[in-house]
Write a structure and sequence with these properties.
single chain; 465 residues; alpha/beta; TIM Barrel; 2 domains; eight-stranded parallel sheet; 11 helices; 20 strands; 27% helix; disordered N terminus; GH; TAT_signal; signal
């Protein structure tokens, strides 16, 4: 379904006065920036991760070849899942998958143990790390090609132990994180592998953060979960970081190991959006999180199917698991019918794929190349500047605007376009991309010192040759 806001983004054109001002999106006259700091474009690719569940042996993830093809076709560099120990079918499936991914250049953020393991913290941690040193290391000639990072326990402020929330969750989370840190830092096999703190829930509070306390002695990076609940990804990031900063006061990098959108129509929680809106928000979100020094960890690759009832809202929570509709790939709502033959890649899959391909620049890190330019905009604007080793610059432009109401109504908004003019110091050719819709430019122009574009709801990328 093409909405008003999506048409406006695709038909990117010259300067046009905006007819209205979106609430919270006040007009500005100019960004006085003659020399814009630029980031290597490939770092934006490294700023994205996807959650998988390859050790769920009897779920849709059992189709290992199809899962592998999705991951590599998406272009993601990092996957996240908990390391499985023992010799179960799920553990065997995970090991085969991670070996294949490492060989293809995809690394693993591995979550070590769960909060329920706290009574045997040392044994559980040792068992997980032993999988790396005794299984993966010998087969991969070390762990460098396998491990992106190691993470603490998952959602410690909401973990259920023995059927209820652990009343001592904070103390037990600190114990698990300390043991992980000490074990990793005492084993040379893990040299250079960052240790990420434990994650907390989306609804984490300052009080829970205070209970968890300062974890900087046992972690390199901060960790968080923040689901966007059907609104712009820009919203709430800074507040979330403010809440958790006391837990990771010295972290210069963060990993939001779970974030993203639920696109189920069958929910009365008021926290879902359409697949189309999720695609718009997701590629903007990668940029939003990058600006704050955080990896965008999208949950998850595949829908986890569960029967739904789209007609009876009164009973919806009994018939629809929200986790069934977080995936970048749609799966039928019946596990018995689900197979790769009837999976469907959602618009967000393609938008993310196009974004990652456009920013891809693997190779030796180049010298920083700032962009000499001035920018004028009719509305408040978010921006990043990226560059590639061949000298091209990319001006990434987006706005903190919502493009659709939440489900179950799901009504698209007519977002007035911001007129943006870029004045260059020297003439350069330009191509305008909107990854949400296409992998080819929506417009090109020969070398000039000025380019004008319109930015509505979608991320717009201006390539300067």
């Amino acid at each position: 379904m093409t909405t008003k806001w999506s048409r406006r983004a695709v038909l990117t054109a010259g300067i046009a006065a905006a007819a209205a001002v979106v609430a919270g999106d006040a007009p500005v006259r100019r960004e006085p920036t003659s020399s814009l700091r630029a980031h290597w474009s490939d770092d934006l690719c490294e700023n994205y991760a996807i959650n998988i569940k390859s050790f769920y042996a009897k779920s849709v993830y059992q189709y290992a070849d199809a899962v592998f093809d999705l991951i590599t076709d998406l272009g993601v560099r990092t996957v996240r899942e908990r390391v499985a120990t023992g010799s179960s079918l799920g553990a065997q499936q995970q090991r085969a998958m991670q070996i294949r991914l490492a060989a293809s250049g995809v690394r693993w953020h591995a979550t070590v143990a769960t909060l329920a393991d706290w009574p045997r913290a040392e044994q559980a941690t040792d068992a997980a790390l032993k999988v790396f040193t005794e299984f993966y290391g010998p087969r991969l000639d070390g762990l460098g090609s396998l491990l992106h990072s190691l993470g603490g326990c998952n959602e410690v402020d909401g973990s259920v132990v023995n059927g209820e929330v652990d009343p001592q969750w904070a103390a037990h989370a600190r114990l698990m994180q300390r043991i992980l840190w000490e074990r990793v830092r005492s084993d040379r096999a893990f040299d250079g592998v960052p240790v990420v703190g434990p994650s907390t829930r989306t609804d984490v509070t300052p009080e829970r953060a205070r209970l968890l306390g300062d974890l900087s002695a046992w972690s390199d990076w901060g960790n968080a979960h923040m689901y966007n609940r059907g609104v712009s990804p820009t919203k709430n990031i800074d507040r979330h970081l403010e809440i958790l900063r006391p837990c990771f006061p010295h972290a210069d990098r963060w990993f939001f190991t779970e974030t993203g959108y639920n696109d189920s129509r069958a929910t009365n929680r008021g926290a879902t959006v359409s697949e189309e809106a999720a695609a718009t928000y997701a590629v903007r979100g990668i940029c939003d999180f990058f600006k704050r020094g955080s990896i965008y960890g999208r949950f998850e690759l595949l829908d986890d199917p569960d029967p739904i009832n789209t007609e009876t809202q009164q009973s919806i929570n009994f018939t629809s698991d929200p986790e069934a509709h977080y995936g970048l790939v749609a799966v039928p709502d019946s596990r018995s019918d689900a197979s790769p033959d009837n999976w469907r890649r959602k618009p967000e899959f393609f938008a993310t794929q196009r974004f990652l391909r456009l920013m891809d620049d693997r190779g030796q890190r180049p010298r920083t190349q700032p962009l000499e330019a001035d920018i004028w905009s009719s509305h408040r604007l978010q921006r990043l500047v990226a560059y590639k080793r061949d000298g091209r610059h990319y001006l990434l432009l987006w706005r903190d605007v919502e493009v659709e109401s939440q489900y179950y109504r799901g009504r698209g908004f007519d977002v007035p376009a911001a007129s943006v003019r870029v004045q260059l110091r020297t003439p350069r050719p330009a191509a305008v991309y909107v990854p949400r819709y296409s992998d080819v430019p929506v417009r090109t122009q020969p070398p000039r010192t000025e380019i004008t574009v319109e930015v509505a709801g979608d991320l717009v990328i201006v390539e300067l040759g």
